Amino acid sequence: MNLKAWHFWMKSASILLLCFIYYVIGYELERSQFWLLFSLYSAAFGLSIYLYRSGIRLKFLIGLSFLFKLIFLVSIPELSQDFYRFIWDGMLNSLGLNPYLHLPSEIVKSDAVNAESLSPMLYENMGSLSANNYSTYPPIAQLIYSLTYDLAGANLLLNVMYLRLFHLLAELGLVYFSLKILKKINLPQKQILFFIMNPLVILELSFSLHFEGVMLLFLALSLYYLYACKIYISALGFAAAVASKLLPLMFLPLLFPYLNKRLKLLNRPQLLTYLKFTGVSLLSLILAYSFLWDSDLLFKNSRTLALYFTSFEFNASFYYLLRWIGFQWSGYNMIGLFGKILPVITLALILFLSLRHKKINFKTLVYSMLFIATAYYLLSTTVHPWYITLPLFLSMFTPFKYMLLWSWLVFLSYSAYKIEGVEENHWLIGLQYAAVVALMLYEGLKNRSLFSRIRFLA
């Protein structure tokens, strides 16, 4: 067998093996089977890297990534139970009930909800944490959940299938705008594969149906039109991203130095342009929320969001170190204190990077966004695997590769899920973050001239 034929069969075997791995994870595996899950995930990672380096045409590999996602079309997500809450919110919207105002645990016995044959299954499987907290999913997410339930009715599999189709459409749009951005900033378009072929993205967004994919579509759209100096379209895209997931709000201050076209800080044209962007974005958000607005919405929504920072904890890094120190000092879990301090540190870092520069270019903007998103999750009390798809997306517009390592090692967090209950392995968590932070620092020192764009190591 000659070398060309050997490579052909190796590529073909890799593709077939990836299809098999995704099938097993999607249809045969349970979340509690951690070591088998992580072994298959690692194999998928290695095979994806091989295909990336194999010389196969970009268009073929992009198409292949969507083929892998279609494997899950008729599977019920196993790695996360969040999708039950997505469908529950869609059901409430279809019944004319505001999901921001009603706890599932309180409304499950109502006549309207009881009349829906799917409601007992949704309530039972969403988990007690979700059942006892108000929904915080923003308006565009609620719109898609509602459309899905209107189309599928009380059929669980159809709801899942329609949600997947929405996700696939969003990822098509994400690929379109991301390729345009990569071309504009003179980076290899092949870097799209770091995201679109990544097993983390395939499993957490397409399989488990987390909504980051839709948010990233609108963020990519916003960044593309921002680069093209089309402020109003970019602002609408940014608003849509926030109306899908609230996280992009933390990037709003970073746009202030980017929109400055002069050497002087705080000049009139800069302020006017920034006010146009923020004004259009905020008005669009207000309009989006107006369809679900109620006088109690802000209180109930903020109460649930506050719990995220001060009560929930999972797969954290620096917070777990602080928690240990707090235990030694006080004898109890000080999450109530640290959960308030860490977001303030993140906010201070955002403001520092935003005000440190008089003006920045597009690449510096993206580097700063990546750094902020990374810092946000390193300082968070809760880091589920799908959370880091945001910095993973941003990293493909930079030369930094530490997010690829994190997107592999973050799956170690699934070791926490047992047949009964959740018990984290802190050795594996420590391994994950030690490796990621070490590579971050190495890349920062190696690319000091690039990293100095955000004036942090310079």
Keywords for this entry:
about 450 residues, mainly alpha, transmembrane, globular, transferase
Account of the protein in words:
- By secondary structure, the chain is mainly α.
- The chain has one domain.
- The protein is built from 24 helices and no strands.
- It has helices spanning 3-27, 34-52, 58-70, 82-94, 104-107, 111-114, 119-126, 128-131, 139-152, 156-184, 193-196, 199-207, 212-227, 231-242, 255-258, 268-290, 297-310, 318-330, 335-356, 362-378, 389-395, 402-409, 426-446, 448-451.
- The protein is globular.
Distance between the termini: 54 Å
Q: Which percent band covers the strand fraction? A: under 5%
Assembly state of the chains shown: single chain
- Residues in helix, %: 55-70%
DSSP summary, beta strand count: 0
What's the pLDDT, averaged over the residues? 90
Which term fits the overall shape? globular
- Please identify the structural class as seen in this structure: mainly alpha
Give the count of structural domains.
1
Question: What's this model, at a glance?
Answer:
This protein has 458 residues and is an all-alpha fold. The protein is built from 24 helices and no strands. The longest helix has 29 residues, at 156-184.
Detail the topology: elements first, then pairings.
Elements: H1 3-27, H2 34-52, H3 58-70, H4 82-94, H5 104-107, H6 111-114, H7 119-126, H8 128-131, H9 139-152, H10 156-184, H11 193-196, H12 199-207, H13 212-227, H14 231-242, H15 255-258, H16 268-290, H17 297-310, H18 318-330, H19 335-356, H20 362-378, H21 389-395, H22 402-409, H23 426-446, H24 448-451
Helix pairs in contact: 1-2, 3-12, 4-7, 4-9, 9-10, 10-13, 13-14, 14-16, 19-20, 20-21, 21-22, 22-23
